[in-house]
Amino acid sequence: MNQADQQPTHSQPTDALSEFWKNLKAAPRLLKETAFRTGKPTTDRSRSSFVFGNVFLHLHSVRTHRWSLRWSTTMGLGIASTSAFLITLVTGILLMFYYKPYTDVAYQSIKDLHFVVPTGRFIRNIHRWAANVMVICVMLHMARAFYTAAYRKPREFNWLIGMGLFVTTLGLSFTGYLLPWDQLAYWAITIGANIAQSPRELTDIHNITTWFDPGGLNRLILLGSDKVGPEALIRFYLLHIMILPLVLVALMAVHFWRIRKDGGLARPADATERVGETLEPVQPVFTEKPTKTYHLAALVKGRTPAVGNGPEGTVPSMPHLFYVELSVLMVTTLICLGLALVLDAPLKELANPSVPENPAKAPWYFLGLQEMVAFSAFMGGIGIPTVVLFGLGLIPFLDREKAGTGEWFGGPGGWPLVKRSIWIGLGAALLVEAFVIRFGWLREWFPGIPQLIITFVNPGTVLTLLYAAYSVWLVRKWNSTRAGALGLFTCFLCGFLVLTIIGTYFRGPNWEFFWSPADWPKH
Amino acid sequence: MTVKAGKPKSRLDPEPLPRRDFLGLASLWATAGALFFAALGMLRLPRTAVLSSPSKKFTASLPDNLAEGEAFVPPGRATAIFKDKEGVYAISTICTHLGCVVKPSAEGFECPCHGSRFHPDGTVAKGPAPKPLPWLKISVSGGKVTVDEGTTVKEGTKV
User: Predicted ipTM?
Assistant: First the structure.
């Protein structure tokens, strides 16, 4: 063997060409291998790397506790909310192909979508129904998190992020409501913008509006003018398609990430025993109980909830969790498509700034608020919602108890307490409403009464105080903050339900009470 | 602060607040302050300075047969104009509750949105409206009236 034979072969021109051919033939396989480096997810190890090696999937933990996969733990409500959001995202982008946010053509472009554009009507219906499904799912998801005490340590912060998602979801729905530029939209936004302006109700009383006018500033920034017009439409459009979706996506990323960092979904301390034997053998990762977390290959000391826990009771997220998530996505899509096939999204006549709709109703999830602003604009539209949101945000920091975490209606009192609270919540709301509808309120009895008294003493505040008093009584009776929270949350849910139903079905022209729309005056 | 000469400081055994940390913190807070004021400045943009709404002044001729206490609402305007023995006067028809347009009726004005009712002079009779309907500046010249929807006048001002 001489020196020349030992030269590396790749320096030969002919061999380089054959190498080129070889590489070209291998390119599809290499593309697949470089995109999915870990290979098929067949073993525990490759299933783990399938999750943490993917930028989208790694928001999930690589293993999921079997308690989290039980239907009754979450009912899939969080994933359903996310799915509904994805559906509105896709259909919303499609609608943007034709929608024009200018007052002279906006209404026509929606009509075009409805009558001319191929599948336009169907896509708009899906968008509308998915938005409604999203609002419902977010509310139910919040109720689920509350009733299973999932907001408790270490999940306090994620509860706050969830509240941010709830408010952003409502904001997205509300801004979308204006875009068709029909009568419904125009007057709902007029009312909404004036609710934003309603701090004036207080500043006017103190005669300080000329130099301190937060209400007027709110309205000016929202509408960009002194009435709902072209500026308002473009602003709501911008909020609807850009600002609020960006906020929502950012909050969602944090929300999901925190679920993983907070040790998965909330579960009882004995969850592992209660779910029983796993379906497949679990290989212990550590031969003795670990004292560190999985972060950075178990190098980092920390206080995160994964510290001290082995993989007992868990299964690989791939495929178990992902199959569940995909099936919830499918069910949500099915529901939205089904509703979109049966029921059209409404479109009233073109917006007319001189003649309000009578009755002018906001979207259904704001009708409870509208019922309250019919007592006092500031208290109903800003005061009470702020107090409720503040109270919801405080819950995880006030309830530091342990009993019942991860259990439905967990905590002192449990389901019997919630059941009684449902009756009290419904009863109090119905009583207050019935009283107001039958006898009127302060101004009907004392025509000269100052506005300040009405702002602070109106059916909305009375109902809130009744609920608060009941809750304080519960805290004392059960000697537990959780019991009070259970009662208060249930009461507010019931009050919301009663006000929404009255606003939706029993209010007619001039916001008067009618047993049925058939009794509405003809003109 | 002064650093004592002689004994070298290691990174693992730092001074209470070394110069580098001080400079680092100062630049961090400077950045935060700059971002804060930049955000404030950016808020100036959406705060509209010139409102795009049409002129608030308009001129209209009253119908000849306008009865006393009967409202005349010029088309496309949110103003009710009345005429009686003392003169003409204009009352805004924008509800002081949440901005719906109220409808003049025999008993005064009624709001379709949340059920506020107003007396014929604009004062609140019923419902959630916090303030009376404002009276607007009106002037008469040559059989025509000119109303300025942007200027309110004292209740009872008739010309």
Answer: 0.81
